[in-house]
Write a structure and sequence with these properties.
133 residues; single chain; five-stranded mixed sheet; alpha+beta; STM4215-like; 5 strands
């Protein structure tokens, strides 16, 4: 079976950057973060994929992690960005090339303090279920 990792990332990127209200909160969504970059921003993290077949249908489940980075003192800004990201992605339609029956849901998130005391970080995991066309 062909991997859905890159098609899912492309679909998420296209959906997120097309959302004006979300993009007004961040400097960008990055696969490879440019240096230097202004905060706040979101970056792609670890993505995993498992086979999730059903009877005679080829399926996949993709676990996608996005990282929210902020220099705001405290977690308020990062939490607001997370809420806005959920409005774009959580349980919303997602068109993934080569797949049908696509659904995406927020699975969990975690607030983290970076070794740099000025940086706040939230990682958020989404699960994407897909059926190969």
């Amino acid at each position: 079976m062909t991997s859905a990792l890159w098609p899912v990332q492309e679909a998420v990127y296209a959906k997120v950057v097309a959302d004006g209200p979300f993009m007004a909160l961040v400097t960008g969504l990055f696969d490879e973060v440019p240096e230097p970059v202004a905060h706040p921003y979101v970056s792609f993290g670890t993505t995993t994929e498992v086979v999730d077949d059903a009877h005679n249908q080829r399926g996949l489940a993709v676990n996608l992690v996005l990282h929210i980075w902020s220099r705001y003192r405290g977690f308020r800004e990062a939490a607001e960005i997370l809420a806005a990201l959920d409005l774009v992605l959580d349980r919303q339609p997602l068109a993934v090339a080569g797949y049908r029956d696509v659904s995406i849901a927020h699975q969990q998130h975690q607030q983290l303090r970076d070794p740099d005391p000025d940086i706040r970080h939230i990682n958020v995991a989404y699960r994407v279920w897909l059926t190969k066309e």
